[in-house]
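STRUCTURE REQUEST FORM
Protein name: Ketosteroid isomerase-like protein
Source organism: Paractinoplanes abujensis
Requested output: C-alpha cells
Priority: standard
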Amino acid sequence: MTTASELVRDMYAAYNRRDADGLLALLTDDVDWPDGSSRLRGKDALRSYWLEQWTRVHTHDDPGEPVDLGAGRIAVHVNQTVRTPDGSPVSTARFVHLFQLRDGLTARMDIEPDTTPP
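Status: completed
Returned output:
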C-alpha cells in the first residue's frame, strides 16, 4: 500500500518528467486542480492543460518533505523553476501545495505563496 507521502512524491516525479499518464494515474477521476484564478475539473481537463502547458514551458518542482495535516490533507513546500523549452530561465518561486487525498489518490490541489523564510 502506498503511503500519502509516497503518493505525493510520485506525483512530483511524474510531473517533473512531464509524464501525463503517470501523473493522472495518481488522481481521482473528479480531481479539482488550480489554474490561476480558475479551477480545472477531471482528468481530461488536466491532460489537455498539461500537454499544452509543456509545449510552452518546462516547470520543475523541487518538493520538500510532505507534511500530514490530518483528514487526508498534505502540505508540501515547493521550490519551483520555470524554463522555456530551450532551457532559458523564466522564473523561480516558492509555494505551498496543499493536497486533499481520497481513497489513496489526490482529489484536490490548492496553491499558496510560501511565506516562510528560506
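Reviewer notes: The CA atoms of residues 87 and 112 lie 26 Å apart. The chain is about 30% helix and 50% strand.
Form closed.
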